[in-house]
Request: fold
Amino acid sequence: MRDLIEIRLTSGPPWDLELLIERIGSDYLCRILGGDRHIGALSLSQWVADRTETGGLAVHGHKELSITEHAASQLCQSSRRNVICLAGIHFESLSKAQIDEILASAHALIKEASRSLEHRRLADHS
Reply:
């Protein structure tokens, strides 16, 4: 069976977040996971009239929605494709500074993935 993962990125220690992007037809499914992996939130972004439209849902008590909305929107803008992003990141007893580090790591992965999808889109059109 062919590996469906198109992009696999990791943040490295200490958080070891993982961002995976799988192609589904012409669209993308993005997963951002770390610590005790689960489904905490998901967002859908679609390319409509030269802009993204994004919405999401979070499991009660989970805080990953800001990550999924940002990722779905950025990846959709870069690829001009529909993107679903889900995130499940859980670590016990974190300080505010550690939470900020995890968010920065997630955003860095999203930025790198976004560049990669944009590069692929532009290469496909040249």
Observations:
- The helical segments are 65-79, 96-124.
- The beta strands are 5-10, 18-24, 27-35, 41-48, 51-58, 83-90.
